């Protein structure tokens, strides 16, 4: 494995090797030997993988939240991701076998911020969006925070990490929309009980509609929110501008920011959820109607 950088901070580009690639429910769990990336990763970081091989026409990378890392093992540091094989790029990834090379850039993005004092935390994940919450749960427990996980999906096969959550958190609530396991409903159905138990911080990762609903409910209960958005990313390094969304800054000005650089983690109350996919009026740099 080779690295293009020898720094102790920031992302690296490495030729990783597949350690294992296995099916987990409706998803795939890919483990890569990627020394250097593992040691730099913090919860909420992601990696960008080149897909399709040397002769592929897929020029753009695929971005994935980091599920887990194991620095400096017998075979080198490993990085684990979870993905759904939906398009050509991820279908190619599903066919990867042990020792296959994969070009990886990471860790990328802005990670979750951790509380300075022990506090009650709810970690809410939808589908395989729950993957980055397990490393976060470990860090929060190191800080003596109480950790409560809420995992939701449409059906049981689309849940990820329900068994592991029992080891990672002080309490676990599972919801499925079809009632195949856990509570029949959605993740927001489980949150009011946690607020009544003293949860003050909510971390979330999953589909954008879920993130919006979780953020709104958390704000109604006076909780501080952080959310890792699932905006599509093409380059992963802030060049292509495909992953922009409107976010309100500390100066109360809305700007179109890049999920891959300024995010993927944002304060939930700063994201203009209803305006995602648009450039809302008043956004910094946007044209002003009726003027030059």
**Strand arrangement across the biggest beta sheet:** 10-9-8-7-11-12-15
CATH topology group of the largest domain: Rossmann fold
What can be said about the biggest beta sheet? 7 strands, mixed
The end-to-end span amounts to 54 Å
Given the helix and strand composition, which structural class is it? alpha/beta
Strand fraction: 25-35%
Determine Rg (CA atoms, Å): 19 Å
Choose one word for the global shape: globular
Number of domains: 3
Structural summary, described in words:
The chain contains six helices and 15 strands. The strands form three sheets. Strands 10-9-8-7-11-12-15 form a seven-stranded mixed β-sheet. It has a six-stranded antiparallel barrel with strand order 1-2-5-4-3-6. Strands 13-14 form a two-stranded antiparallel ribbon. It has helices at about 35-40, 90-95, 135-140, 160-170, 190-195, 210-220; strands at about 10-25, 25-35, 45-50, 60-75, 75-85, 100-110, 120-125, 145-155, 170-175, 185, 200-205, 225-230, 245-250, 255-260, 265. By secondary structure, the chain is an alpha/beta fold. Helix 4 (about 160-170) links the parallel strand 8 and strand 9 (about 170-175). The chain has three domains: about 10-110, Elongation Factor Tu (Ef-tu), domain 3 (Beta Barrel), CATH 2.40.30; about 110-230, Rossmann fold (3-Layer(aba) Sandwich); about 230-290, Dihydroorotate dehydrogenase B (pyrk subunit), domain 3 (Ribbon).
């Amino acid at each position: 494995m080779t690295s293009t950088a020898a720094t102790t901070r920031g992302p690296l580009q490495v030729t990783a090797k597949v350690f294992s690639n296995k099916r987990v429910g409706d998803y795939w769990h890919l483990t890569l030997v990627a020394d250097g990336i593992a040691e730099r990763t913090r919860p909420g970081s992601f990696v960008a993988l080149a897909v399709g091989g040397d002769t592929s026409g897929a020029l753009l990378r695929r971005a994935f939240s980091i599920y887990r890392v194991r620095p400096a093992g017998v075979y080198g540091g490993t990085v684990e991701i979870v993905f759904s094989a939906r398009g050509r790029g991820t279908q190619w990834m599903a066919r990867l076998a042990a020792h296959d090379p994969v070009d990886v850039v990471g860790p990328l993005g802005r990670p979750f911020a951790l509380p300075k004092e022990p506090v009650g935390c709810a970690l809410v994940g939808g589908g395989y969006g729950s993957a980055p919450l397990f490393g976060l749960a470990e860090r929060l427990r190191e800080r003596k925070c109480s950790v409560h996980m809420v995992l939701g999906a449409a059906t049981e096969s689309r849940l990820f990490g329900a068994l592991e959550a029992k080891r990672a958190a002080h309490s676990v609530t599972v919801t499925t929309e079809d009632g195949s396991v856990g509570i029949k409903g959605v993740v927001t159905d489980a949150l009011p009980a946690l607020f009544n138990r003293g949860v003050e911080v909510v971390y979330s990762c999953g589909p954008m509609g879920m993130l919006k609903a979780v953020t709104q409910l958390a704000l109604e209960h006076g909780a501080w929110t952080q959310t890792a958005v699932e905006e599509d990313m093409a380059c992963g390094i802030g060049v292509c501008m495909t992953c922009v969304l409107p976010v309100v800054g500390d100066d109360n000005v809305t700007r179109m920011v890049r999920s891959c650089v300024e995010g993927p983690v944002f304060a939930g109350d700063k994201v203009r959820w209803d305006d995602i996919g648009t450039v809302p009026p008043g956004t910094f740099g946007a044209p002003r109607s009726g003027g030059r």
